[in-house]
Amino acid sequence: MRPTDAPPLIGALDIGSSKVSALVCTTDEEGRLRVLGTGQRQSRGVKRGFVTDMEATEVAVREAVEQAERMSGQTIEDVWASFGAGGLSSGLATVEVEIGGHQVEPSDVDELLRSGRDAVDRPGQVVLHANPALYTIDDVQGVRSPVGMHASRLGVDIHVVAADEAPLRNVDLTIRQAHLGVRAIVASPVAAGLACLSTEERDLGVALIELGAEVTNVSLHAGGMLVGLRSIPLGAKDITDDIAAAFGVRRRDAERVKCYHGSAMTSPRDNHEVVEALPMGAEDGAEPLRIPRAQFMTVIRQRVEQVTAEVESALKDLGFVKPVGHQVVLTGGGAELKNIADYMQGVLGRAVRVGRPRQLTGLPDAHSGPAFASLVGLALLAGQGTGDIRDLALPTGRPAGPSGGWIGRLVAAMRGGR
Ligand SMILES: Nc1ncnc2c1ncn2[C@@H]1O[C@H](COP(=O)(O)OP(=O)(O)OP(=O)(O)O)[C@@H](O)[C@H]1O
Ligand SMILES: [Mg+2]
After folding, report:
1. Residues with C-beta less than 6 Å from any ligand 1 atom
2. Which intervals hold domain SHS2 (predicted)?
């Protein structure tokens, strides 16, 4: 039994297209996260980030969570889950209220945020994040804290991240069928951004590319929040499938060849090396095919070029064109492909680095790579308790814990002024 005064347990769950991963952690006396257990299972019922087979996904969720629970010696009741498929959207809602020239008081801000409740609504979508950004006082924009200032009109820009309702409900239902509560559902780029971008980067402006197995999410972060995103239905698994199809080899071998011998950059040495892989349908121990490295590098390169071109156009679309100093951070399992950051840097013409999740006490090495950015980010969001996640739970979900500040006010307002 855990003592009743022990810090609460946090459960994080990332349901990806290739893996389902879980993490159990708690906070120490200084409020820092301490990981108690992790678990992982192959994902079998998720396509391009969408749950397409609830039963298979539920089993993977249950097993991954049980593994993390066993390692931690604890049992969790609910999880913070990620959502990273297409159908995520971000936008800005602006609201304004009349103040009548007096000094702005906290209650005016409450009223403003309450009136933002309708403004952030998106038909057919669930609002996952609604972060008040900057305030306007009369016609003066960019006010960080309006309380105490005189104004006739008070306004606020609210950054909204929303997702299509049906796929989100499927995630919610799958988790509940695994006998877990859903504490919150977080947009994957929000979680990954928190895990592998520095506070300064998130403040000054940075692009994050989460190269997953079947989905690549491109998001812009500025002013400490996510300000734009695009989802590309392509990922690192497409490279595996290309290799398997091009050479008629088993998927498992194609994956191994990609991870151990693959690279995003070609080299003259490729002409002198061969890699071995078993043909499709062959038994273990059968005679392998010998593929010249240059040939499979061509296959990898074609897909990498396509994904990079899509990323480039998403960045343009999002207005990430200037200043060139702003960098790009690459995360997700696909960021492990050798030289991918160098290749993208050449094409995008700006600094690209691989983003690994922030080191947490007790986080095993096996869960410290870029593929675990979202998982770690979920734990960080849960641990830091900032209000931008209080509006995440689906209408049927349990509300998140208490939080203060403007964001907490917005959430309180969105929940009907409680
Ligand atoms: N060393 C490596 N080289 C190339 N690819 C790699 C390497 N390591 C992992 N990957 C790829 O990363 C992908 C898994 O990434 P990740 O775990 O981020 O995906 P996911 O979260 O399951 O899926 P998604 O987010 O797309 O729904 C796999 O396709 C895997 O082949
Ligand atoms: Mg993922």
Report:
1. 16-19, 43, 49, 84, 212-215, 235-237, 240, 255, 258-259, 262, 332-334, 336-337, 371
2. 10-196
Both 295 and 223 in a single domain?
yes
> Total structural domains in the chain?
3
Domain, as residue range, for 400: 10-86+165-190+359-414
Q: Is 244 helix (H, G, I), strand (E, B) or coil?
A: helix
Model confidence over 311-362: pLDDT tens digits?
Answer: 999 999 998 987 767 899 999 999 999 999 999 999 999 999 999 999 899 9
Please state the atom number of ligand 1 nearest to the C-alpha of residue 236: 29
Probe residue for ligand 1, chosen from 336, 354, 376 as the CB with the greatest number of ligand atoms within 8 Å: 336
* CATH number reported for the structural domain that contains residue 228 in this entry: 3.30.420.40
pTM reported for the whole predicted model: 0.89
Based on the number of CB atoms within 10 Å of its own CB, is 322 exposed (0-12), middle (13-18) or buried (19 or more)? exposed
H/E segment holding residue 343:
helix 340-348
Q: Which amino acid is at 370?
A: P
| Domain-located, residue 226 | yes
Residue to mutate, 88, 259, 356, ligand 1, most ligand atoms under 8 Å from C-beta: 259
